C-alpha cells in the first residue's frame, strides 16, 4: 500500500506539472504513460497477492458503472454542446 501511495504521488506530480500550474524541476521526468503504468503494476501486484482476478473485477466494475451511469452525463447541462 505504501508503494501504491508513492506511485500515485509520482503520477499526481506529473499531472500537476503537465496540466496544472506547477512547473518542472531540472531533471524531473514527465512521462505520464510510465507513471500510469507504474500505478497499474502495483495494482496488479496487489491483486495477485490477495488472490483477486483483476480482469474479472474490472469487467464487473465496468458492467456496474455502465448500468448505473448509462444516462448520467447525457442529462448534465454543463456537458451539452451548442
Can you describe what's shown?
By secondary structure, the chain is mostly helical. It has a single domain, classed as MazG-like (Helix Hairpins), CATH 1.10.287. Helices cover 63% and strands 0% of the residues. It is built from three helices and no strands. The longest helix is centred in the middle third of the chain and has 19 residues, at 32-50. The radius of gyration is 17 Å and the shape is flat. 2% of the residues are buried.
Sum up the structure in keywords.
single chain, 82 residues, mainly alpha, Helix Hairpins, 0% strand
Tally the structural domains.
1
The biggest sheet amounts to:
none
Strand tally = 0
The oligomeric state is single chain
Distance between the termini: 45 Å
Question: What is the CA-based Rg, rounded?
Answer: 17 Å
CATH hierarchy: architecture: Orthogonal Bundle
CATH third-level topology? Helix Hairpins
The number of helical segments is 3
Order of helices and strands: HHH
Averaging pLDDT over every residue, what do you get? 90
Amino acid at each position: 500500500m505504501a508503494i501504491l501511495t508513492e506511485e500515485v504521488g509520482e503520477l499526481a506530480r506529473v499531472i500537476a506539472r503537465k496540466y496544472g500550474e506547477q512547473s518542472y524541476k531540472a531533471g524531473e521526468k514527465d512521462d505520464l504513460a510510465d507513471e500510469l503504468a507504474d500505478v497499474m503494476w502495483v495494482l496488479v501486484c496487489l491483486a495477485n497477492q490477495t488472490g483477486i482476478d483483476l480482469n474479472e473485477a474490472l469487467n464487473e466494475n465496468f458492467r456496474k458503472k455502465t448500468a448505473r451511469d448509462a444516462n448520467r452525463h447525457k442529462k448534465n447541462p454543463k456537458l451539452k454542446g451548442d
